[in-house]
Amino acid sequence: MNASLRIVCSGTSYRTNAPPLNAPVRPELASELERALECFARGAGFGPQERVLVTFGPGVVGHHQNGRAADIYEVAGVGLHRWFDQWLRHLGEASCADPITRQNLIRRACRQNLGWRLYKTLQTLGRWARPPGYPVQLFGPWTRLEGPLRAISDRLLRAHFDHIHIAK
Ligand SMILES: [Zn+2]
């Protein structure tokens, strides 16, 4: 293994799981993630007294082999696919309400959903790889609905139904 690789460390407001699931990555990816995770956790109301757990999981192909990519599978002990299902359900419930109530319900569905919050923070704050001819390397269950690659293929979307993939 490349000696310069390191795991994504815990911060003030979040903590990460241990290796081997939190696999060592390049330092520039680790520090970019640490910056974004701290912003996410603080924004969601966590702090030193209660740090939110962010769980990395095994990545298999491509960029993972040289430490350029990481996969996040859980936030606060809940799988990303379950956060996504909950988000869809709350949005579905909101669609039955009158316009003003609907806006409030949608805002609340997003604000309370740690999976959605994490994805949006990574999308807004993270400077991820964008290889020539390829889209920004941020994929997850929200990609088709929230971007950045709204034209994501069914295959790629299915491959990321339960985790967020980031590369740098
Ligand atoms: Zn991945």
Percent of residues in beta strands? 5-15%
What hetero molecules are in the model? zinc ion
**SSE pattern:** EHEEEHHHEHHE
Number of domains: 1
CATH architecture: 2-Layer Sandwich
Mean of pLDDT: 94
* Amino- and carboxy-terminal Cα gap: 18 Å
Number of strands: 6
Roughly how many Å is the radius of gyration?
16 Å
Q: Enumerate the spans where pLDDT stays under 50 for 5 or more consecutive residues.
A: none
Q: What is the share of helical residues?
A: 25-40%
Which class in CATH terms?
Alpha Beta
Major beta sheet summary: 6 strands, mixed
Derived structural class = alpha+beta
Q: Count every helix, treating DSSP H or I runs of 4 or more residues as helices.
A: 6
Per the CATH scheme, the topology name is Muramoyl-pentapeptide Carboxypeptidase, domain 2
The dominant shape is globular
Protein model, in words:
This protein is of the alpha+beta class. It has a single domain, classed as Muramoyl-pentapeptide Carboxypeptidase, domain 2 (2-Layer Sandwich). The chain is built from 6 helices and 6 strands. It has helices at residues 27-43, 80-94, 99-111, 114-125, 143-146, 154-159; strands at 14-16, 52-57, 69-75, 78-79, 138-139, 164-167. Strands 1, 2, 3, 4, 5 and 6 form a 6-stranded mixed β-sheet that branches. α2 runs antiparallel to α3 (99-111). It is globular. The mean pLDDT is 94. Bound molecules: zinc ion. Zinc ion binds next to β3.
